[in-house]
């Protein structure tokens, strides 16, 4: 997930948190995130391709909704459809819900739940920032170890807050679902568990999936690139990566050899977690249509 960094925010946030306390600080978070959305400060390159996959009446899942960046975009693209937004962390869920109400998005269903391999109650760990507030976008299942090489880049925090949250398997929780066209998933290394818990749903509806796959997060759960790659292909999906700069939509032959999956920014020490589009094999004709349209998209 894209993040907004500025010296002003770095200075102001700790002061506001100490003065306001957490409950009042959530209003500041809400206002700040509205600004981020309005000014498109949290744009991810892959958002540019959403109109190819999300139509006026589409049904979408936003798994790891965070501060509603994708929820808002998906809801606007499908005014006659529906968006189910999953966000298990209580303070983040409150802000996300306020943002959805701010925009009057009647087609969004907010769910204060995580997504995993089975229905259960699980502990989540969320790092605490210097301000004292949580870093909601880094929430993850407890049990993921972060004492790995590049920890200073990907997980530079020493303190965490723990929450007990409800986690659902899509196959169990949505057994009566009538349609599913698109899934966005960003859940800090637990993506394989979520995919396993929705495998029947994926076989039934064949939605396109936009998924973050980060080597550091997967390693924390002892998940290898091959294991992730094989499971995705076993579901009948191909992996694709979009380059906004070059206007290319390229097939990834394997995560193990993919340069973006293996990339580490050792100069700026900025965490990098690539996003991939997962396209069902039988829908790969749409790839050519996308490639035909890419040169017509504006270059930013």
Task: Please give a structural write-up.
This protein is of the alpha/beta class and 300 residues long. The strands form two sheets. Strands 3-2-1-8-9-12-10-11 form an eight-stranded mixed sheet. Helix 1 (7-38) crosses helix 4. The mean pLDDT is 91. The chain is globular. The longest helix is centred in the first third of the chain and has 32 residues, at 7-38. The protein contains eleven helices and twelve strands.
Short description:
The chain is an alpha/beta fold.
List the main descriptive attributes of the protein structure presented here:
300 residues; alpha/beta; 8-stranded mixed sheet; 4-stranded mixed sheet; 11 helices; 12 strands; globular
Layout of strands and helices, then pairs:
Blueprint: H1 7-38, H2 50-53, E1 59-63, H3 69-77, E2 82-86, H4 90-102, E3 108-111, E4 114-115, E5 120-127, E6 140-141, H5 151-154, E7 160-168, H6 170-173, E8 182-185, H7 191-196, H8 199-205, E9 208-212, H9 215-220, H10 225-234, E10 237-243, E11 248-252, E12 275-280, H11 285-293
Parallel strand pairs: 1-2, 1-8, 2-3, 4-7, 8-9
Antiparallel strand pairs: 5-6, 5-7, 9-12, 10-11, 10-12
Strand order of the largest sheet: 3-2-1-8-9-12-10-11
Number of DSSP helical runs: 11
As a whole number of angstroms, the C-alpha radius of gyration is 19 Å
Q: Could you give the count of β-strands?
A: 12
Low-confidence stretches: none
Mean pLDDT: 91
Identify the overall geometry.
globular
Terminal-residue CA separation:
19 Å
Secondary-structure element order, as H and E? HHEHEHEEEEHEHEHHEHHEEEH
Assign the structural class, choosing from mainly alpha, mainly beta, alpha/beta, alpha+beta, or little secondary structure: alpha/beta
State the share of residues found in helices, binned by percent: 25-40%
β-strand amount: 15-25%
Main β sheet profile: 8 strands, mixed
């Amino acid at each position: 997930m894209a993040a907004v960094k500025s010296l002003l925010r770095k200075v102001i946030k700790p002061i506001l948190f100490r003065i306001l306390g957490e409950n009042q600080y959530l209003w500041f978070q809400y206002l700040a995130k509205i600004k981020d959305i309005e000014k498109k400060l949290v744009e991810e390159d892959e958002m540019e391709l959403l109109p190819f996959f999300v139509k006026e009446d589409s049904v979408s899942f936003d798994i790891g909704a965070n501060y509603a960046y994708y929820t808002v975009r998906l809801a606007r693209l499908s005014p006659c459809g529906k968006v189910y937004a999953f966000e298990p962390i209580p303070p983040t869920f409150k802000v996300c819900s306020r943002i959805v109400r701010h925009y009057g998005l009647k087609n969004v269903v907010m769910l204060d739940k995580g997504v995993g391999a089975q229905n259960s109650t699980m502990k989540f760990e969320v790092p605490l920032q210097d301000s004292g507030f949580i870093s909601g976008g880094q929430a993850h299942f407890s049990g993921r170890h972060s004492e790995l090489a590049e920890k200073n880049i990907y997980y530079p925090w020493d303190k965490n807050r723990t929450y007990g949250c409800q986690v659902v398997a899509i196959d169990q929780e949505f057994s009566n679902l009538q349609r599913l066209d698109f899934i966005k998933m960003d859940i800090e290394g637990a993506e394989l568990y979520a995919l396993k818990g929705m495998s029947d749903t994926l076989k039934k509806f064949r939605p396109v999936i936009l998924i973050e796959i980060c080597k550091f997060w997967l390693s924390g759960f002892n998940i290898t690139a091959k294991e992730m790659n094989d499971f995705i292909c076993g579901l009948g999906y191909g992996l694709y990566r979009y380059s906004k700069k070059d206007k290319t939509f390229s097939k990834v032959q394997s995560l193990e050899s993919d340069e973006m999956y293996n990339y580490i920014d050792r100069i700026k020490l900025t965490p990098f977690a690539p996003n991939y589009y997962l396209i069902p094999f039988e829908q790969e004709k749409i790839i050519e249509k996308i490639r035909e349209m890419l040169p017509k998209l504006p270059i930013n």
